[in-house]
Amino acid sequence: MNTIEEEKALLEGLAANETNAIEKIYRENFSTIQAFIVKNNGYPEDARDIFQEAMIVLFEKAKLKSFVLSCQIRTYLYSVCRRLWLKRLQQKNQYYPAFELLDETVQVEEEIDVHEKVNNDFHLMEQALLKIGEPCKSILEAYYIEKKSMPEIAETFGYTNADNAKTQKYKCLIRLKKLFFAQYKNGE
Amino acid sequence: MDDTLLLDAVERYRNGEMSAQEITFFEELRKNNPEIDQLAAEHNFFLGELEKMSDLKAYRHNLNEVENKLTNEGIISRKEAKGKAKIIYLWNKYRRTIAVAASIAGIVSISTATIVSIYSENKKVAVITPLVDTRLNQFEHKLTQIESKLKDASSVQTKTPVKPDFEANFRATAFLVDGNGYLVTNAHVVDNARNIIVENKKGDQYFAKAIYSNKLTDLAILKISDTSFKRVIGLPYTFPKYSAELGEHIFTLGYPREEVVYGEGYLSAKSGYYGDTTSYQISISVNPGNSGGPVVNKNGEIIGIISSKEANADGVVFAIKSKNIYNAIKASGNDSIKLPSVNSLRGLERVQQIKKLEDFVYMIKGN
């Protein structure tokens, strides 16, 4: 079991997207979650899915400046996975599994709702990116996702200088913004 | 102000790329110009969303990397469940359906059985029936013979062929208590037997001898006498010295058929027939042939040995408390018998427990 300091360090590592922290959390928790899901009508693939999802919830939480985890990571992940899995089973209209009621869990409803919204926005953005077409998609991905510098991008995409590339980037961004908001508002 | 310029300004503001002077100017501009302010807020929100997406993508990438690494190390099981594993998962998935189907089948068969027993009721003198299957009839012999012939035909499979010239007239259950070939069963199973054969799940058969038998406790210890028997390691269960609790869920494996059969139930009383304190009363469905089977609790501890059932009541079964095994071993005077001390069934799923357990539960036949 980790001390409070270790858990804090793990969460900071997670927020900074450090592989070491992710790996440690996986090692310490995955098997429990898999056992739980397989026991409750699931396949190991489901366990991988659900665990990833829970790791994302934890990541979103860890990134918040105001964030304080009031329980152990283990308990938190278990609660989130349990909630997510229950939801999925209900969606699939399967038998409501008889969870052991004595499990230690914490309330995670709110976080999961927030997470669903984040997920939704993520998909909207992805959709919008798919729709703007080339070269806009590649330029924006190069800058915002691959974190390349403007001079690099200018060279890759054949602009005479970084400023031209930058102008192009902003034009693309405005188009992306329009597409994003068009769907975003539809979705509301 | 041009849209592009504003976007640039917002982005630099977000990233902290503005000089102090610029910041003041920009904030001032927003304050005095609601239209620009609203647009800037929109830009800001949008850039935030874009940033979130990019963070999440990077994070997902790392999640997948870690997942792959751990899959290669075998810590996470591979994506496709194949063969046996799949069957277990399907079993887990559909066991509720199966349970429902099975209970319907159960109800049907129970009611049929009741009807049969009503019509064939005869006055029984003995209240207690030992659960040795003595009905091994011609038909079953034929079956065994055909099976063994088939096995012989596909020769390579069989390690130990069915013992020749052996006509068994009873069948029951026994289980290993020591990997060197020591088994425990009921005394009433072996007391009148001249020849005893034990057979494991794979169908390997060995001659065995009773080295101890006590009518009072109804326990017997067998030793496999065949030289072809190889020491078995990794007995997964232990024998608790403490008493089991009322209502504990228990299960058993046994040989009421030529194939191993699972049954489950609960502990219903801490004493046996007429207050016999060396036994438990359990509620479980058993049949002739289950005698000598282990009664296992959820932690994989053997708490008892099935011995008999009340003939005129359903599901009233008696099991000898397993602490009697300690006494039996002491009384047998054989110091070389070592009961297993490591329990590797604890915390496993029932199906996994059974899988591990069934290699150590033997069918016992004889005449």
UniProtKB/TrEMBL annotation, chain A:
Which species is listed as the source?
A: Ginsengibacter hankyongi
NCBIfam families xrefs: sigma70-ECF (TIGR02937)
The yes or no answer to whether the keyword ATP-binding is present is no
List the transmembrane segments: none
Name this polypeptide is given: Sigma-70 family RNA polymerase sigma factor
SUPFAM superfamilies membership:
Sigma2 domain of RNA polymerase sigma factors, Sigma3 and sigma4 domains of RNA polymerase sigma factors
List, alphabetically, the PANTHER family matched.
RNA POLYMERASE ECF-TYPE SIGMA FACTO, RNA POLYMERASE SIGMA FACTOR HI_1459-RELATED
Q: Which UniProt keywords apply?
A: DNA-binding, Sigma factor, Transcription, Transcription regulation
Gene Ontology annotations of biological process type: DNA-templated transcription initiation
List the Gene3D superfamilies hit by this protein, alphabetically. 1.10.1740.10, Winged helix-like DNA-binding domain superfamily/Winged helix DNA-binding domain
Q: What is stated as this protein's family in its record?
A: Belongs to the sigma-70 factor family. ECF subfamily.
Instruction: Answer whether the UniProt record assigns the keyword ATP-binding to this protein.
Output: no
- GO MF term list: DNA binding; sigma factor activity
UniProtKB/TrEMBL annotation, chain B:
Is Transmembrane helix there in the keyword field? yes
Q: Name one GO biological process term.
A: proteolysis
Which Gene Ontology MF annotations are present? serine-type endopeptidase activity
Spell out the protein name for this chain.
Trypsin-like peptidase domain-containing protein
Q: Which Pfam families match?
A: Trypsin_2 (PF13365)
Q: Which UniProt keywords apply?
A: Membrane, Transmembrane, Transmembrane helix
Traced from the root, the source organism's taxonomic lineage reads: Bacteria, Pseudomonadati, Bacteroidota, Chitinophagia, Chitinophagales
Question: Any stretches that span the bilayer, and where are they?
Answer: 98-119
